[in-house]
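$ ./design --mode recover --in tokens.txt
reading tokens...
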């Protein structure tokens, strides 16, 4: 490689501090809430056999037809970087001998080869939860509430929750037939993509962003008006539970979601702050997927929330001006060993601390402490050592006080509390 500067691949992102720390905070909220609702973390490979995604996300979905990072390994196997979490999780639960119900969550990187733009990347983060083995509409409602609480806790502004039902194996065929009839009558007014969808996956036409298609679709029969009694009842209970919980949501009878495995309840969180890529996250019920993977009939539901879009929609995070970091400074090289001991003591007490090992003068050490945003300096000088004290400098105010050496840890802690 020549000395030319390298840039990151298109559609990827770097997270340098402090953005990396903002991102971790988002992930921490995800983990905390998941545990609060009884979910346990699951980790699955970054890549799977391509078949896993084709079979579940759907061979007519955009993800599978246009966006997969598919490659052949040295043994000529077709593998794909995971574009979403659900298929790998279902595969893993089955391979691990799925018994009874499992509530699992994941936070990680996913890969889709789309056209990069604001909020759309080729590598992006998702926080997902899957409730596998749960049939009740109360599960659907609780998932919707959990996602909403995630956005609420992170201070995401202008988040709206859209909810719909797209029926089941019983009622969808009749509805599909009706929709195909309608689309056939309007074939000439539809875009190329939608015309293809008529035969392959007609429900997907509702995802089309094309203005003229949207006009045609305004009169199309909607899935939620063609539910069988069981689906109708299921959806009514979801809404009842949401109402009881005081949850604000909108019924969106054109919401179908871009993946093939859904049935009954589907939902999406959208934000007007995001522009074209307005979907913050989404999910729904997928009662047939486990069976399609060769498992026993197992109802399931889940969601995935995009981490970058969440961060884009968040109000500017309130970052403390100074980090909870103590800097240890020596005045003359004679105190260097004592400074190293103090550094170890602070860390042993759980206080983040560092020194500038390269600085040969105190002035330079203070400059480093300021540059990294340390909240305080523990200053060790010859006079102080003789009297059994250190100086503690508050870097925000510049104030300095003398503290007995055995009181340094509680005093630094007290300073971090402000
Ligand atoms: P999805 O709607 O394809 O659902 O993705 C969920 C979220 O991931 C989106 O709302 C968005 O925030 C984020 N996302 C998707 N693609 C990108 C991208 N290229 N760049 C940035 N963010 C993106 C699923 O993935 C399903 N597995 C959800 C689910 C779980 N359903 C049931 N369980």
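writing sequence...
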């Amino acid at each position: 490689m020549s000395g030319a500067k390298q840039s990151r691949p298109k559609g990827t992102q770097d997270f340098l501090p402090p953005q990396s720390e903002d991102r971790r905070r988002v992930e921490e909220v995800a983990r905390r809430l998941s545990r609060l609702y009884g979910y346990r973390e699951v980790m699955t490979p970054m890549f799977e056999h391509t078949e896993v995604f084709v079979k579940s996300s759907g061979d007519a979905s955009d993800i599978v037809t246009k966006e997969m990072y598919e490659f052949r390994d040295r043994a000529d196997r077709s593998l794909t970087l995971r574009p979403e979490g659900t298929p790998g999780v279902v595969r893993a639960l089955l391979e691990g001998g799925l018994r009874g119900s499992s509530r699992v969550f994941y936070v990680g990187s996913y890969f889709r080869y789309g056209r990069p733009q604001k909020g759309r990347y080729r590598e992006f983060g998702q926080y997902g939860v899957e409730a596998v083995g749960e049939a009740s509409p109360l599960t659907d409602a609780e998932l919707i509430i959990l996602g909403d609480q995630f956005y609420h806790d992170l201070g995401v502004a202008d988040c709206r929750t859209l909810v719909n039902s797209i029926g089941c194996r019983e009622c969808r065929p009749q509805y599909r037939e009706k929709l195909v009839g309608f689309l056939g009558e309007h074939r000439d007014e539809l875009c190329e993509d939608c015309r293809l969808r008529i035969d392959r996956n007609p429900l997907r036409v509702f995802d089309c962003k094309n203005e003229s298609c949207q006009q045609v679709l305004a009169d199309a029969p909607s899935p939620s008006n063609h539910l069988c009694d069981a689906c109708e009842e299921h959806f009514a209970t979801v809404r009842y539970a949401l109402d009881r919980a005081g949850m604000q949501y909108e019924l969106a009878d054109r919401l179908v979601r871009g993946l093939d495995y859904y049935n009954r309840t589907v939902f999406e969180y959208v934000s007007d702050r995001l522009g074209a890529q307005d979907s913050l996250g989404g999910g729904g019920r997928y009662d047939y997927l486990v069976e399609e993977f060769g498992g026993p009939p197992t109802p399931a539901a889940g969601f995935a929330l995009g981490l970058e879009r969440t961060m884009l929609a968040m109000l500017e995070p309130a970052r403390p001006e100074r980090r909870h970091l103590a800097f240890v400074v020596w005045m003359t090289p004679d105190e260097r060993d004592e400074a190293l001991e103090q550094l170890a003591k602070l860390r042993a007490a759980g206080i983040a601390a560092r020194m500038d090992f390269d600085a040969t003068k105190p002035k330079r050490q203070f400059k480093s402490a300021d540059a990294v945003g340390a909240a305080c300096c523990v200053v060790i000088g010859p006079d102080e050592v003789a009297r059994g004290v250190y100086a503690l400098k508050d870097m925000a105010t510049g104030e300095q006080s003398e503290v007995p050496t055995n009181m340094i840890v509680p005093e630094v802690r007290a300073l971090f509390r402000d």
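exit 0
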